[in-house]
Amino acid sequence: MKITDIKTFVCDAFRTNWTFVKVETDEGLHGWGEASLGTQEMALSGCVEDLKRLIIGRNPMEIERMCFEVCRDIYWKGGPVLTSAVSGIEMALWDITGKYFNAPVYALLGGKMRDRVKMYANAWFTGAREPAEFAAKARETVALGVKALKWDPFGKAHMTLSNEELEKSVETVGAVREAVGPHIDLLIECHGRFNPYTGAAIARELTPFKPMLLEEPCPPDNFDALAAVRAKSDIPVAAGERVYTKFGFNDLFNKNAVDIVQPDIFHAGGILESKKIAAMAEARHIPVSFHNPSGPVSNAAILQLAACTPNFLIHEIMLTDGSFRKDFSDEEVVFEDGFLRIPDKPGLGIEIHEEAVQKHPYKPRNLRHYTGNLTDIRPKEDTVYYFKGIQK
């Protein structure tokens, strides 16, 4: 079996764009990957196009060899565009291999350790601006059976917070904690926005609310800064979504900068690279929670990886997306009492509907972390839960 073509599909997904990668073979099997980068989509598509000459004609089941040789033969190493392109292609090759052997990907990676994974909800807070509004949204979400909530309560802040801004952020977290009670996990997202002393101040002020983690308090370009926050924080520090390949994570671990590591499998190098990173973390007794704020193929791939990763902790899910998500694929996410069931279909267990995706062409979307628009409001009728087990 040989690879005959690689195609990219970039589609508007309201708050961002999703990039799907399709690998085709001469035996009729095809596989889907995802490489949704968020802001450099055209560069990503061009990189996939550049990589074709190194990949077309190869055996799609020689995944380790392909990734090693392609990365070896690219002179300029690292960076999210290249690693995302490789990740999306690699993911599709696992999908093909699973289909060929009529087995889920987890069965090819050592077998299933668990039948379900605990999930935490992102995007549950759409439209909230004030503490009372976040509290109301939190109550609604927990009523659905969700047991963990993540959000960014820091408005437009960058690097520092005034006393007034910090006070409102603390009030917001306190309002949510009071609304949901002591047993719901709260995950506080910082989006890599703060300098070390501000990150430490945030951790100090939020400690009474017992968050599960403080995510990416410092920018990802300085692991010493992150380690400085961790040294002063009583809240576990999580990071890793903007770290690439096992080599980058080796530096992160050697700096003792994280309590919980969050590789993004469609940026870090793919499924196998992410399993290697998780094993490096396991050797340090660090749990792993794969970053997953994107589309259906990413979600399907991470569930396969979560099934066979011993130190897996918790799975991220975007609780609400536009109705387009259901149109884009045959995704089947089964929710049960705060957990997601691991699918058992061959490969990644998902197919993309190409015609539906093409009806939502690429639309430039600017980063929203410093604009205060993280809680963008979409039309209520277009906000849906795409789980089985949750009713709108």
List the helices and strands and how they pair.
Layout: E1 3-12, E2 17-25, E3 30-34, H1 41-55, H2 63-73, H3 80-100, H4 105-108, E4 116-122, H5 131-142, E5 148-151, H6 163-180, E6 185-189, H7 196-206, E7 213-215, H8 223-232, E8 237-239, H9 245-254, E9 260-261, H10 265-268, H11 271-282, H12 296-307, E10 315-318, E11 320-322, H13 324-328, E12 333-336, E13 339-341, H14 354-358, E14 383-385, E15 387-388
Parallel strand pairs: 4-10, 5-6, 6-7, 7-8, 8-9, 12-15
Antiparallel strand pairs: 1-2, 2-3, 4-13, 11-14, 12-13
Order of strands, widest sheet: 10-4-13-12-15
User: From N to C, what is the helix and strand string?
Assistant: EEEHHHHEHEHEHEHEHEHHHEEHEEHEE
Number of helices, where a helix is a run of at least 4 consecutive DSSP H or I residues: 14
Supply the CATH architecture of the largest domain.
Alpha-Beta Barrel
- Tertiary shape: globular
* Domain module count: 2
- Total E-strand runs: 15
